[in-house]
Design goal:
418 residues; eight-stranded mixed β-sheet; 15 helices; alpha/beta; binds adenosine-5'-diphosphate; globular; disordered C terminus; 14 strands; Nucleotidyltransferase, domain 5; six-stranded mixed β-sheet
């Protein structure tokens, strides 16, 4: 017999320009009923993979090449077909969307009305790579799931508690007043989730917790959290600022941009491409944007010496920049209960974590090698010695937050309506 999932599941959608990730989640316990990805959309290689989790009878993953026009709408149609076939459509209470930029307008999850969609569109000028893609997902989901509430959960929302002194750039103030040029911070949903989880692990109310969290994935950001609220973050007006990332440069001297354009003849579009797609771990190593591959190369004595040297250099610059960012963000705190690592690298790379912690001995971090080697692949734990300031590895789960917040918003919305 087909096992029924609990009612009030939330379909979480994270739509990028060429991919669409989705999961159907029970917000109460975070259990994934299905998840999957449609990728290489808008190309002839477009495909969709849907994984059905163990509690469904037919849990063979569904994998299919997408038929023309290979776009987000086609992907959502396939998803709806699968959900219908598994009798899951009736269990969806809402669709929760990850939206990258909420500007100063949105500090909370928000029900997507036509006006809200229009504002997300207007905010696309602040996030031209992300918000338009998020909107494509919203439009496709609205058509496919007519009548279901759609909720936007913004990546910038958690950072809206930053004080002025943290978010104002030392630029003419009119650029902030008239053009909204300020620090926003990103990865907010992840920093929010891991800080709450860490508070739980430490048995302390989140309102009394002071953390620095480092989300290290393809994109990387470090956030200072005071009394459970974000007070500063390394990413800025765009997700390009801050520490070095997979392919993004992070902060550089802005003078380099003028030099590239005026002296070396690069166009602005080329500079944009270099800073976003050809820099970071990939740019320095000239090998890969993938931390795993670089670690392998750095430790492989049989490789070409130049490759080993550049892999090591990329990892050294990466870890040093993150350590510096952690140290500099500590300036906003008068207490630091723990450092938190999360994201693909933060959750899995004992090598990177050890290197960062060694660099931070002045802040009294003293890594426990055994605990550090154990806290990987989904395991959480304090990876520092007993006499050290704690450093926790906490796997992030942004999808669960989006499901929880969408579901909570609905409940509060219903209360207000009655
Ligand atoms: P995204 O920001 O796209 O969500 P992830 O959070 O999945 O990315 O992080 C991807 C990064 O995590 C890649 O650099 C990858 O090499 C790294 N990573 C994943 N597993 C490991 C591992 N076992 N050791 C080192 N790095 C890892």
């Amino acid at each position: 017999m087909q096992m029924k999932t609990k009612p009030h599941s939330v379909l979480v959608i994270n739509c990028g320009s060429s991919s669409l990730k989705f999961s159907l989640i029970n917000p109460a316990d975070g259990i994934n009923i299905i998840d999957g990805i449609a990728e290489r959309l808008m190309t002839s290689d477009a495909k969709i993979i849907i994984k059905f989790h163990h509690h469904l009878k037919n849990n063979t993953p569904f994998e299919k090449n997408l038929a023309p026009p290979f776009d987000h709408k086609t992907a959502i149609e396939q998803l709806v077909n699968c959900l219908t076939e598994h009798q899951l459509v009736d269990q969806i209470s809402a669709v929760g969307h990850r939206v990258v930029h909420g500007g100063e307008k949105y500090s909370q999850p928000t029900l997507i009305t036509p006006q809200v969609a229009k504002t997300i569109d207007e905010l696309a000028k602040l996030a031209p790579l992300h918000n338009p893609a998020n909107l494509i997902g919203i439009t496709a989901a609205q058509k496919a799931f007519r009548g279901l509430p759609q909720v936007a959960v913004f990546d910038t929302a958690f950072h809206q508690t930053m004080p002025e002194k943290a978010y104002i750039y030392a630029l003419p103030y009119a650029l902030y007043q008239e053009h909204s040029i300020r620090k926003y911070g990103f990865h907010g949903t992840s920093h929010y989730f891991v800080s709450k989880q860490c508070a739980k692990q430490m048995n302390k109310p989140i309102e009394q917790c002071h953390f620095i969290s480092a989300h290290l994935g393809n994109g990387c950001s470090v956030t200072a959290i005071k009394n459970g609220q974000s007070i500063d973050s390394s990413m800025g007006f765009t997700p390009l600022e801050g520490v070095m990332m997979g392919t993004r440069s992070g902060s550089i001297d802005p003078g380099i941009i003028f030099y590239l354009v005026e002296q070396l003849g690069y166009s602005l579009a080329e500079v944009n491409n270099i800073l976003n797609k050809e820099s970071g771990l990939l740019g320095v190593s000239q090998l890969s944007n993938d931390c795993r591959s670089l670690e392998k190369m750095a430790l492989n004595n049989d490789s070409e010496p130049k490759k080993i040297r550049l892999a090591k250099l990329a990892l050294n610059v990466f870890c040093y920049q993150i350590a510096k960012s952690i140290a500099s963000l500590s300036a906003g705190l008068n207490q630091l209960d723990a450092l938190i690592f999360t994201g693909g690298i933060g959750e899995n790379s004992a090598f990177v974590r050890r290197k960062i912690l060694k660099q931070l001995s002045l802040l009294n971090f003293n890594v426990d090698d055994q605990a550090n080697d154990t806290a990987r692949f989904g395991a959480s734990g304090n990876i520092c010695q007993q006499d050290s300031r704690p450093c926790w590895v906490i796997p992030t789960n942004e999808e669960w937050v989006i499901a929880q917040q969408s579901s909570q918003l609905l409940k509060h919305g219903l209360k207000q309506d009655t």
